[in-house]
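Course assignment 3, question 2. Fill in each field.
Student: A.L.
Task: Predict the tertiary structure for the chain below.
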Amino acid sequence: MAKISVVVLAGTEAHSDLARVLNALALTRESMEAGDEVELVFDGAAVAWIPELNNPEHKLHEMFTGVKGKIAGACEFCAGAFDVKEEVRSAGVAFLSEFEGHPSLRKRVEEGYQIVTF
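Answer field:
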């Protein structure tokens, strides 16, 4: 059994960013189905994906809701910087602020997680 922290950093501007989010959601789902210990973290510009993916009209909405139980959270600092704090909260996603307002990837490494970034 693997221990994986899937970290999304991709913004929402480019078509390639959509592919990166899709791959992050797919890895999370695949890991869930394999029985791995997995978590999904939205950091940096990726926090803006949460309101997009939470929209039932978005083509990745079903994938997002399918892995929602594995979302560790979103960077609290970045949610404020990208002005999506209320939308993240409304989506039911927790805020992570373990290191100066940001998620601590170091803590995750210390806990034995392999970090995979998209």
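Instructor remarks: The mean pLDDT is 98. The chain has one domain: 3-117.
Grade: pending
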